[in-house]
Amino acid sequence: MQDLELYRRILGIEVPWHVDAVELKLDAGEVHVHLAHRDGRDWPCAECGTGYKLYDHQPERRWRHLDTCQYRTILHAEPPRSACPEHGVRVVQLPWAEPSSRFTALLEGLAMEWLKAASQKAVDGLLHLTRISHHLATEARDRPASTSLRLLAVLNAGSSTPALVKRRAPPADAPLTHFAPPLHRARW
Fold it and tell me: What is the 3-state secondary structure (H, E, C) of the chain?
């Protein structure tokens, strides 16, 4: 399996998006995954959801994702914008991150769950972050466990059995391919 297909599957990237390039930066301890989209489709307005032709792109943005083995994983993309007659030019909703976030939804979900049981400094160290944004720490503390979260199987630190950790679920009206790879229990 080629690295592009491997990362497409690991990240759950679906049409119209695809993995355009994967760079391994050994000295920095990072994997950079570049995402691009196919042309010729309508993009939904972030406010009303009505599809419109591509207007333009924001400059390239980066999102920190869960680590790939011991390497920090960073996603790169130029978010498309559509021009809605009612709401104006808006960046479309990206399937891997919340608007204006610097982290993917999976990393945010894991960090928020860990912040319920550990200090911000401890979680920063475990996720190899310089600091977790204040809003993640606040949201983790204030969010009730019953809110719209999806279970993800991960290895519980110090244990040989997987523990369930929650992450944000896609919106209820999102297609099933909305950055949601199949969930399964890891075998260790």
Answer: CCHHHHHHHHHCCCCCEEEEEEEEECCCCEEEEEEEECCCCCEECCCCCCEECEEEECCCEEEEEEEECCEEEEEEECCEEEEECCCEEEECCCCCCCCCCCECHHHHHHHHHHHCCCCHHHHHHHCCCCCCCHHHHHHHHHCCCCCCEEEEEEECCCCCCEEEEEEECCCCCCCCCCCCCCCCCCCC
Measured between alpha carbons, how far is residue 32 from residues 23, 64, 65, 141 in Å?
5, 10, 10, 31
The two three-digit tokens of residue 175, written as one number: 């297609």
Taking CA atoms, 37 is separated from 18, 74, 78, 120, in Å, by 6, 17, 9, 35
Pull the structure tokens for residue 131: 């600091």
Whether the predicted model's global pTM rises above the 0.85 cut: no
pLDDT digits (tens, 9 = 90+) for 22-67: 999 999 999 999 999 988 889 999 999 999 999 999 999 999 999 9
